[in-house]
Design a protein that fits this description.
227 residues; alpha+beta; two-stranded antiparallel ribbon; 41% strand
Length: 227
């Protein structure tokens, strides 16, 4: 591999660029998307097939090293960036993996903020449960679906046969907070406390994005792994 790497650097030195790079998408160790193009001197080119083969062999050779840095808990798809510095005889691997980030939101709503249907539902809950001070709804909404996990009346677990109206109340306020499609992808989870005419919505919003893993593997003719 040492001689192959030297050949790769010599090839790119002939193109007179100090920093050549390419970008791939992988599913764990399998290359899923790569157009075999490299950014050289302000434009994309496809190198000789022998150069492409060396790159593919290097990726396979260093996969165990990639695995040490990458996190596949959220998604097995990840991005590999390859920078080649031909005049310095070095190649650098970096990577990005998908991570899940959370944001906590707390909002107060008033009875007048509800649709008429949900106003009627809140009134019904209080009318059917004399002396009730407050009720709490714990919910989850992700990937186009949603669940009412638990309901509490004055801190006591309330058993229900149908969660449609409870979900309608949650959805009403979450749409106001996050928009119509709040639970279409990573969504949110949290709870709503209804205290007579005042409501407190407390939830965690989930978002996924690709983030640099901190991987920086530098390969030179002196330290390259042998096949």
């Amino acid at each position: 591999m040492k001689n192959k790497l030297k050949m790769l650097f010599a090839y790119f030195r002939g193109l007179k660029d100090k920093n050549v790079h390419t970008h791939l998408t992988l599913d764990r160790e399998d290359i899923e998307d790569w157009d075999r193009k490299f950014y050289v001197n302000g434009k994309y080119i496809t190198p000789a097939g022998s150069i492409i083969k060396i790159i593919e062999e290097l990726i396979e050779l260093y996969y165990d090293e990639f695995y040490r840095y990458n996190d596949y808990d959220i998604d097995t798809y990840w991005y590999l960036e390859i920078h080649i510095y031909p005049f310095e005889n070095r190649l650098v691997f970096t990577s990005e993996c998908k991570v899940e980030k959370t944001t906590r939101n707390k909002t107060r709503y008033d009875f007048i903020d509800l649709t008429q249907e949900n106003k009627d539902f809140v009134n019904k809950v209080y009318e059917e449960n004399e002396g009730l001070t407050k009720f709490q709804i714990e919910f989850t909404g992700r990937w186009g679906d949603g669940d009412i996990n638990y309901v509490y009346f004055d801190n006591k677990r309330h058993h229900f046969d149908d969660d449609v109206e409870f979900w309608g109340l949650i959805n009403d306020l979450m749409v106001q907070s996050e928009g119509r499609w709040w639970n279409e992808s990573t969504g949110a989870e949290g709870d709503l406390v209804v205290w007579d005419s005042v409501m407190f919505l407390d939830y965690i919003k989930y978002e996924e994005e690709y983030e640099d893993t901190g991987m920086r593997i530098e390969v030179t003719p002196d330290n390259v792994k042998e096949e």
